[in-house]
Amino acid sequence: MKNLTFLKIVFVFGYAFLLPMCGSPIGPDNLPYRLAPEAVCLNSIPDEWTYLGLREESIRSVLVHPQNPQVIFVGTGFDFSAQRDGKIFRSTDCGKTWEKVYEGGHFRGILLHPEDPYTLFAWNHRPTGALLRSTDGGDTWHLYSEGMHTDGYNLTSVVLINPDNPQIMYAATAGFWNGAVYKSTNGGQRWEGITMNHWPILASGTTAMFMHPNEPDVLLHSADGNGFISRSEDGGDTWDDVFIAVGSVRTYALNPENQDHIVAFSAGEGLLISENRGRNWRVETVTDSALSISDGKFISGDVYIATNVGLLRTNDFENYIVMNEGVTSLTPYVIASDGEELNMYLGHWHNTAAGGGIYVRRIYEER
Fold first, then answer.
1. According to the model, what pLDDT value does residue 354 have?
2. Average pLDDT, the chain
3. Dihedral (CA of 101, 106, 109, 114) sign
4. Predicted local distance difference test score (pLDDT) of residue 174
5. Which residue of 44, 256, 265, 357 has the fewest C-beta atoms within 10 A of its own C-beta?
6. Distance CA 77, CA 61 (A)
7. pLDDT digits (tens, 9 = 90+) for 238-296
8. Computed from CA positions of residues 43, 47, 48, 54, in that sequence, does the dihedral angle turn out positive or negative?
9. How far are the Cα atoms of 82, 96, 242 from residue 53, in angstroms, in the given order?
10. Strand-strand pairing, 154-161 and 169-175
């Protein structure tokens, strides 16, 4: 009997130890995943890309859950030629298996609520172009764009949440005709336009927005076609145009080691760099062959850039290393990492040589 009791104790403690390593598909109250910040994904190696699946999909967005890095969400793009809708996929085992949790969109972004680890936002729904919300970890999704003008020609392009007050959210639209920036003060239940007085027509709409994490009222905005960067210090009530870019800005990234240092990744000019929280900008050319940039991130002290010639890395904005090892015709579209920056993920744009899908690589500082 004593031996049996001892075995039970060993089993319980062993299970508790192994669970973060193995993952669990069931969370509290039957939610699809549990919170395990100590969990790790060990299905990656340094200096090489490991394919994780979804080869037939063009990956437009990747979210690694900050409170359980084994949980990964992926949004895919609408294939116009094949008339195939984009989808949202979820993995609870580090990308070893994937479950389709939604179909019917062109998912440019997936965002987690800063205070609720089971509430997510994804954009955009097809054909309405609207924002979607899930409150059960991605099991079910519902339209969440009341007050926003979205349709088949005006699509949700950006969503931001104030980390200090999640009731304050921003969303922007883009499309064939025009776009707008919207603000919600009740957690997205209702949206109101805030850019109509500043920009009568936003060309083809908004391509990127940025909210400073330490000063959430400091916002940056970029529009397609016009190529300008506008800045607000009062939560979007007033805006100043601070820079004219050649081509549109695709995304912004903040240097975690310097809260004044912001990089804008431009499809036309390369890198736009500000050292004073977006008040002034300078241009840094990446390489002559990198003619298209889709994403950029600061990870472990380096800057990673998704371009038409593959993934580039720099730590000085002068020397760029191509990181295409082992993948023919690498066409990265989106970059993500886990909270501990152990692994980097690439969402791949579908091409005939390499297909699409998602890849992972172990991160090591290489100096």
1. 76
2. 86
3. negative
4. 86
5. 256
6. 9
7. 889 899 877 788 999 999 999 999 999 987 778 999 999 999 999 988 876 656 889 99
8. positive
9. 20, 8, 42
10. antiparallel
- How many Å apart are CA 304 and CA 232, to the nearest integer? 27
- Buried b / exposed e over 189-218, threshold 16 CB at 10 Å, is eebeebbeebbeebbbbbbbbbbbeeebeb
Q: Are 294 and 273 in contact (CB under 8 A)?
A: no
Residues in the chain: 367
Q: What's the one-letter identity of residue 113?
A: H
- Give pLDDT, residue 349: 87
Nearest residue to 174 (alpha-carbon basis) of 213, 148, 194: 148
Contacts 24+ apart (CB under 8 A), 266-275: 266/227, 266/293, 267/292, 267/293, 267/294, 268/227, 269/245, 271/296, 271/305, 271/317, 272/229, 272/243, 272/245, 273/317
Q: What pLDDT, on a 0 to 100 scale, did the predictor assign at position 76?
A: 96
